[in-house]
Structure formats: structure tokens, C-alpha cells
Amino acid sequence: MRNLQTQPESKALDRRRFCAISGVAALAAMAGVRANAGSHMASESATFERIQTGNGEWTYDVVLGWSQLPAGKSFGGTHGAIATDKAGHVYVSTQSETGVLVFSPDGALQKTIANQCPEVHSMFYAQEGADEYLYTTVQKGTPQENWLFVKMKIDGSVVPKITAPPEAGFRAPNEWRITAAVPAPDGSIFIANGYGDSRIFRFEKMARTVEAMAAKESRMAFSTAAMACP
Questions:
Q1: Using CB atoms within 10 A of its CB, is residue 15 exposed (0-12), middle (13-18) or buried (19+)?
Q2: What is the pLDDT of residues 117-172, one digit of tens each?
Q3: What pTM value is reported for the model?
Q4: Going by DSSP bridges, is the β-strand pair 100-103/90-93 parallel, antiparallel, or unpaired?
Q5: Helices (H), strands (E): how many in the chain?
Q6: Dihedral of the CA atoms 217, 229, 195, 26 (nearest 10)?
Q7: Domain boundaries, the chain
């Protein structure tokens, strides 16, 4: 996508309509279908209707046909997790054992990574020194590990994992349903638990304490020495 200012002739889309039209947000034509967004080529000089999403300075043009999958391949849906690395590669999550698709800047499928994580819910790219990482929340991992945080290198290799902290009172698997994670400058990790819980947990760099924060709740600190995050 290209970040552009809103133009008078543009047609702004809400998230649901945009996803219905483009399929996989930033990929726009995941299955290789090229559409003209409802415009008709009346002559050689006719132009396509512009499809945009977002608003204000965060308005983006959809680039139709930017990427295509190999013939006969279909990787299912996506939670919409997308990230880019310093080389411009685009990482897109799937809801299948394909894991994460990795595209070149020009839209060519390079490889897949994180096949052990069939449903990555969110991804956040971070460069730490010379290393590049993806901070991910995983809705479905292995049969033994669902709903977990995974910090991975951009080749898909896992660094640490974080599962539901029992110190925070989690007892049932469906209580810990994380949706997003980001690193802080001091090396700690903020993880949002969604789907009704609405709390944000902070794990220190060496995981000595974890803090739960919510708008209507006091802060709570728990000992989590067993969950070391290097």
C-alpha cells in the first residue's frame, strides 16, 4: 500500500468493506484476482476508481494485483497481521499451517515461516541491535500450546514464549486470549489480553515481575521468575 493524503475523488472504505473487496488487506489480490473496483474502461484514457482505506494522514491506496500465490495454492484466511522488515519484505499471517507468508518488496512469494504457529493474531516488527524480530501473539499453536506470545527471528526461529501467567489468576485456557504485543524501550514486553478481559500485562526483560493494567483496576504485581524472556 502507498500512504497518500485523501483526495476529493477518493472513495473511503470502512474496514469490513475494504476486507471484503481486497481479501487480505495489504496484499489486495491474494488469490490473483485483478479487479477494477467497479470502474469501466470506457476508453484507453479511462482510469480505475481508486480504492482507499484509512483516514487523514493514515490513508492508503490499495495496490491491485501486487502479489499472487503459486498456481493451485490457497492458504486460507488471515487475522490481518502484517509487518515489514528493514529490507522491505512483507510478512502476512494466515489461519493455516502455512504460518506466515514472506513476500519480496515487489510482491513475489519468497517462503513461509512459523509453520508451527497456524494462527498468528498480531505481529510487530522490531530491530534490536543487528537482529530483527517479530513480536507475535498466536491464537493457535501446537496442541499443547494455544494462546501464547512468541518472539521470533524473521526466519521464524523462536526466541522466548510466554503463556498464561497463573499468578494473574488465569485458570481456564479461554481466559488468556491475547491479541497484541509490543516491546518497550527498556526491553519489557506489553501484552494485551482481549475478548472481554481487557487487560494489558507488562513482562520485565528478565521476567522478574509482571504487571496487569486496566482502566478501572488497580495495578497488580506478580512474581514470574519462571518465565524468563532473554
A1: exposed
A2: 888 999 999 999 999 999 999 987 666 677 889 999 999 999 888 888 888 888 77
A3: 0.69
A4: antiparallel
A5: 1, 17
A6: 130
A7: 1-68, 72-230
